[in-house]
Amino acid sequence: MEVEIVASLTGLAGLAIGLATGLAVRVSERAQRTAVTTASVGTLPPGVASVLSVLRSSAVVVDSEDRVLRASSAARAFGLVSGDRLVVDEVLAMARLVRRDGEIRETEIQVGPTGARSRADGRWFAVRVAPLGSHGLVLVLAEDLTEMHRTEAIRRDFVANVSHELKTPVGALSLLAETVEGAADDPDAVRRFAGRMQYESVRLTNLVQDLMTLSRVQGDEPLPALNPVDLDEVMAEALDRCQIKASSKDIDLASGGEDGLQVRADHELLVTALRNLVDNAVAYSPENTRVVVSTRKSDEWHVEINVTDQGIGIPHGEIERIFERFYRVDPARSRQTGGTGLGLAIVKHVTSKHGGDVTVWSKEGHGSTFTIRLPLLDTPRRPGASAARTVGKAQENTAREATP
């Protein structure tokens, strides 16, 4: 009897041990599977994080449940990722397709505003999506193409604008030549048409000259060795070049300010920039008014050249764009003045090349004041000089004081 009891207890003990062992094995297997799943879903394969950290492109790693495991700061800043989610539907759809079939996909997308101004305000990316490992991870790389698109758009606009501006005088010259040929027996008509041909040829020459000047100053290459330049001489030469145009409208050109101020500059470029400002002032001022050019030290490092007119002024909403190439506030009126549409762009780039900037105060019906600000001779340049900004009440007060 005792032997049977011992045998039964031994059997029960063995059964309990077996059950405990089986349970332990199951728990261990479940823990291992959980650990593997967690590792595959919540972490990156070894070495991937280090590789992603040195990539120039915006990088995003997405797991099998479309959660973002890792995203570069650029990807978040550009609006590709928010929290732990890809927020660009097109990219998310590509990631799911790549996870499903394992094929690498590429496309070009735009992120940002949509509608009429989307090309100007949105950002463009070249996106490449590829599988990463064997646990459903997907790698998204996005290369920012915004600057390339912007440059290409500027190039297209520039070519279109140049073609349009060249077409007008060239077409006029061709038509006038035919007219002169047909009016050979009428000396008065020949003289009249010849004068018109001369006007169009001057307009064409000015456009070509402005294009050459703009090409010289808008690049990243520094100007050749600069020399000390006396601003009194620059003002006198710029006013002299505009005198005939001003006299035809009975506009008085005057100069003033501090004498003897000097800057380190390219003399001809500085005269060209100032002449463009005076030309604009004359062109957009009514007859029997006054244009004043003055100089003054704004502080111990800088000098300002102010060009003040009593003209029609510039609408507030247009001030930010007037320094763009070929931009015209009133295209019809601008072409009547004979301008090329490049004058203010040249002013902006010339001043920037000399370590300065150009600002403008204007009010419709009350005239405008353009201010070129440059480093004084033998003073260190301050880094980060901008190339065309608008100013507020402080500049307005200065302009009012300079207004005759």
What's the gist of this structure?
It is built from twelve helices and 15 strands. The chain is an alpha+beta fold and 404 residues long.
Strand content: 15-25%
Helix- and strand-based class?
Answer: alpha+beta
Low-confidence stretches: 31-41, 114-119, 383-404
Global mean pLDDT: 77
What does this structure look like?
- It contains 12 helices and 15 strands.
- It has 404 residues and is of the alpha+beta class.
- A hairpin with a 4-residue loop joins strand 11 and strand 12.
- Helix 6 packs antiparallel against helix 7 (187-217), helix 7 (187-217) runs parallel beside helix 11 (343-353) and helix 9 packs antiparallel against helix 11 (343-353).
- The termini are far apart.
List the helices and strands and how they pair.
Layout: H1 2-42, H2 48-53, E1 58-62, E2 68-71, H3 73-77, E3 81-82, E4 85-86, H4 89-101, E5 105-111, H5 118-121, E6 123-132, E7 137-144, H6 146-182, H7 187-217, E8 227-230, H8 231-247, E9 252-257, E10 262-265, H9 267-283, E11 290-297, E12 302-308, H10 331-336, H11 343-353, E13 357-363, E14 367-375, E15 389-390, H12 393-402
Parallel strand pairs: 9-11, 13-15
Antiparallel strand pairs: 1-2, 1-7, 3-4, 5-6, 6-7, 8-10, 11-12, 12-14, 13-14
Helix pairs in contact: 6-7, 7-11, 8-9, 9-11
